[in-house]
Amino acid sequence: MEEEFEKIFNAVIEGADENVANLVAQTLNGGAKAGDILNKGLIRAMDEVGNRFESGEYFIPDMLIAAKAMKAGMALLKPLLVNAGVASVGRVVIGTIKGDLHDIGKNLVSMMLEGGGFEVIDLGTDVSPEKFASAVREHNPDIVGMSALLTTTMIHMKDAIEAIDDIGLKKQVKILIGGAPVTQEYAEKIGADGYASDAIKAVMLAKSLMDLRKN
Amino acid sequence: MENNHPKIEVLNENQKNTLHSASLEVLQETGVNVHSEVTRKRLAEAGCQVDENRVRIPGHLIQWALNQFPKKVELYDRNGDSAMNLEGKNCYFGTGSDTPFVIDLDTGLRRNAVLSDIENVSRLTDSLHNLDFLMCMGIASDVPPSISDLYHFRAMVSNTIKPIIFTAWNSSNLEEIIKIADIVAGSHENLERSPFLALYAEPTAPLTHGLLSCEKLEVICRSNLPVVYTPGLITGASSPVSSAGAIVVANAEILSGLLITQLINPGTPVIAGGGGMMTMDMHSMIASYGSPEFMLNWCSLREMGAYYGLPVFGFAGVSDSLIFDQQAGIEGALWVLLACLEGGNLIHDVGYIESGLTTSYQMIVAMDETIGLVRRFMQGVSVSVEDLAFDTISSVGPGGHFLTERHTLDHFRENWRPDIFNHSNRNDWESAGAGSLGDKALQKAKKIVADCTPLPLDPNVKKHIDDILTFAKSRLNEMD
Questions:
Q1: Is the ipTM of this complex over 0.90?
Q2: Topology of A91-214 in CATH?
Q3: Chain A nearest-CA residue for B406
């Protein structure tokens, strides 16, 4: 079985999404547990991808394509993991704030979070404060992520946080914000729980918040 | 479809024709001073009119010289592999030579250059990917001055395999250096076949070929080894202040120098185009390397070199600034871009500050990075089927993103990446210590100097070279 996990590990690192899906299916047929495939194959591979990024060998496209490959494997594992009662790393509702159609940054964060084992519900772009609030009620996420590129739209992040607070759910989620004009000071000022300056740090921050939550 | 490569043009055809005619007229009417009797005699036999030191040169002799020399000069590395093909628009970069001072790596203060600086700069050049050749940078103040050129050459050849452009104080020292090079190459035949060096020598502006230069040319041309023989003038002082007048003087020196080399040994490989045309600052009296007039004049001289088909000597990574600061970066980088846009060929002085009086390790490292950036720019735009990415555009469609496309993965590594220039966001930069370019260049220089281990010379070769230096030194003591 270790040999199969190794093949999955390598296929994720190479970003071969179809191979990952096939290998995961085969390994499941061979009798492996979904949780083992997740931990010994997919997550271990993404950790290695993260190391290669840190060392300068891998860049963003390498990471995203690996994350895409991991997602292909996760699609098969997810129903089994739910049945087995294995929780995902965390659930994130994410979107670009009202008035803003720029979604490259938000997409980067989404893909990186998925690569990190998070379940991501992507609300898309131009998301109103009300839509953020109702998504929190509907999906019961651990984290809400909001992004803005423009100083003119960034102000709506405050409205969205208030909308979540108005329905009484702000304490149950952690709100992370990001985007080119956003700063740590701004996050504190509008009552967000955290700020990350890039997608890699967003995942690190999300993970550390999940650790705090579990403890 | 072949790429268009970025380029600039300072002179048009009419201007070049006029500058050429004016240069020939100066050579014919005014002539040049030649301080070597041997050289004068040879010029007279060839048909020049000689009157004491003054030699007036008819235009047909210049045309003859232009037909003699090989239109390209190829230099090799110490291992005998081809390293630089000096022709067309090929552009190669290297350090400068003979600055009295360096900025100390540890104290940051200016001091006299010593032999270990030349060893350090040789190792630095050996290690930096965008530097193609080495000049010695400093004049070592801690070895006997009359044979310090021999020490420079030993320091260089022991610490890099890259081609070396060297200076020699006189023809007898030059003969010793060639002996050393023969030993390194295994034989003089090997050295002639795959020269890993070229001599740098120069006329004295205005319009003078000095005795030492003529004697060095005799030795190097007879040895069948390549030589750089280009003017170094200071406009307003040793040439007219106007660009056209300065170019005519420089060009007349180039063409008469070329004739001298080809009369000694027709076919001698000469890098004769280009040269220094520093601007005299009429207040401080420095010879300015960062002035727009020098840039304009060098570009013109480079284009005259192309007009004749001469390999060209040039400048980059140089500055008038007294320290490695913003001015140094700006002037140095402008020169790198100009050298590439003009198309080379042998571009030296990378690392000069203080108008060529001082070497800065930081400047060398920062300019290596700049050269990498500019070289990427010079690749131009490839309009191939693969690069048009038609299928990828169609599959992503409006509103999607290209981050996870195979096409992105296959091609993003073609983008240039900096080593010490900052591409970080503010948070990362702050947590890494908020270093300036100067800080990072210094760190990189120190690390290379400490860690880099160039390919050593064979122990027997090393001993042989050491013996030559010991002998030269003992002869010196006898003379004292």
A1: no
A2: Rossmann fold (3.40.50)
A3: A65
